[in-house]
Amino acid sequence: MANNKSAKKRIQIAERNRLINKSYKSTVRTLTKKTLENCEKYKKEPNADNKNLVQSSLSIAFSLIDKAVKKNVLHKNNGANKKSRINKIVKATLTTN
């Protein structure tokens, strides 16, 4: 356990940052899953509403991934890989129908 004041403060700051980073990563995973679910919904029923749903969820996911990269929660290559993976699936979904 820390003995001096600055070390105790660093522990508090590290814990705060860990929780913030955890929430970012969790939200990125959730939005990714939601985007892929919307793709499946579009595959089953290809209409304009579902297409807009896929595109809006994709832009929201991209936005959050970019924000996480900007705040150093994710490495820039990791963020790019996540975006690439999602975009590849969405593109395949939208072009087949």
Topology:
Elements: H1 5-44, H2 48-70, H3 76-96
Helix pairs in contact: 1-2, 1-3, 2-3
Considering the chains and any ligands shown, give keywords for the structure.
97 residues, mainly alpha, Methane Monooxygenase Hydroxylase, Chain G, domain 1, 87% helix, 0% strand, elongated
User: CATH fold name, please?
Assistant: Methane Monooxygenase Hydroxylase, Chain G, domain 1
Broad shape: elongated
- Tally of individual domains: 1
Number of strands: 0
Report on this model:
The model has no long low-confidence stretch (mean pLDDT 94). α1 packs antiparallel against α2. The protein starts with a helix and ends with a helix. The protein is elongated. With 97 residues, the protein is mostly helical. It contains three helices and no strands. It has helices spanning 5-44, 48-70, 76-96. The chain has a single domain (5-96), classed as Ribosomal protein S20 (Methane Monooxygenase Hydroxylase, Chain G, domain 1, Up-down Bundle).
Summary of the model, kept short:
With 97 residues, the protein is mostly helical. The protein has three helices and no strands.
